[in-house]
Amino acid sequence: MDQQSTLAEVRELCIQLLGERLGQQMAALAQPGFVLKPSSPDMLPAGRSRAGGPALLEPGTPWPQATDGAPLSLFAVLDTDELAPSLGDRLSARLGLVNVFKAVRWGIDECTIICADPAHAVETPTPARGEVLTMVELHAAPIITLPSVSGEYGTGDPVLETFDYRAEPGYDEDHWESPTERFVQGPLREEWHYYCRDRQGFAPGDSQVFGWPHIDSWIGMRADGYHHFLTLSGDLWNDNGFERVMVPPGALQTGKFTNAVCEQDGLH
Fold it and tell me: What is the pLDDT, as a whole number, of residue 205?
């Protein structure tokens, strides 16, 4: 993917569907990310990136536990040295291998992220009593993302609510539809889905690292300033739905991932 030409296409699409004013605002929010797919002979793994399996930790690193004392499960390892060149200043810290651990029980959002130096990291198996997800090596392909407009009716990224819609033709503060749905999500939802599928090779809700998160039916932490880090689709394990990992502001610049959360969302 040529990033600049894709950004130009996204800008043209936004202006065509939303008008010059809102279209420019939306296009200015476009962010690079990667769609993650199981590797194959034609799609090589992104370094040591994987979903599930053993962790890649430096010797002596304690395996993280849930509050009940049970070991968390290795959700994914992202080899950010392989991904960083496409992200510019969005990833200013050298994070190396980013291990994402989570509780596998439904409704539990406990999540821990541990970075490891690739030169010293070794495969570390899940301790006894911990649940192991089947390992899937991950290929990463660059994409351009927008704040989510493709979820259920009335559901989208809270950043869309910060737009000023009062100058839009037909604006009525008492209208039964929210301004976000009327002026951004409604006009853009279907065409953005087609553009992602036909021009970028992914569907909103697919596994993804960095960029804006897909929001199917709800999102918990975006309104508090949390940023999207990782989404893994249940398709990787013949399951349904998807889970996203949200990290505090500045985490990708400092490498400090304290208070990360894992959110479970609907179907896609």
Answer: 87
Q: Is 157 exposed, middle or buried (0-12, 13-18, 19+ CB in 10 A)?
A: buried
Q: What is the CA radius of gyration of the chain?
A: 19
Q: Name residue 96's amino acid.
A: G
The tens digit of pLDDT for each residue in 50-66 reads: 999 999 999 999 999 98
CA–CA gap between residue 136 and residue 133 (Å, rounded): 9
CA distances from 107 to 98, 205, 255, 259, 266 (A): 23, 19, 27, 17, 12
Return the SS3 of 90. helix
- How many helices (H) and strands (E) are present in the chain, helices listed first? 6, 12
Q: How far is CA 260 from CA 212, 228, 231, 245, 257, in A?
A: 16, 10, 13, 7, 6
